[in-house]
Amino acid sequence: MPKKTKKEKIIAEYRKRLKLLRLTKIVPEKAPSPEIQIEKSFTNLVKEPEPKKQINLNIDTSEDDKIKIFFLNDFKKSLFLTTLIIALEIIFYFVSIKNNFGLN
Question: CA-based angle 61:62:63, to the nearest 5?
Fold first, then answer.
């Protein structure tokens, strides 16, 4: 591609400036300034706290019961697995002792 001549560079620079001027004229008319947008978004984020709603105690107790039931079920499963693992370890221990004495 051939290089741009000085006149072409000047024309391209004028086009860029013209675009910028057109954009700056259009943007303030249609859109508010960025400072106003920031203030609006900040006021949307900072709202007055809403009054707290009273929670029914009946709902809380049922949730507590569900949590207790889940805990007990999980606890039973973990106790079962723990005793199973300990029993297997004891069995392996005695089997290894029996094999060691039986081979000698």
Answer: 90
Q: Model-level pTM?
A: 0.37
DSSP assignment letter at 47: -
CA dihedral 8, 12, 14, 15 (to 10 degrees): 140
**Domain boundaries defined on the chain:** 1-45, 69-104
At 69, give phi and psi (nearest 5°).
-65, -45
User: What whole-number distance in Å separates Cα of residue 59 and Cα of residue 56?
Assistant: 6
Contact 29, 22 (CB under 8 A): no
Say yes or no to pLDDT of 60 above 70: no
Residue type, 98: K
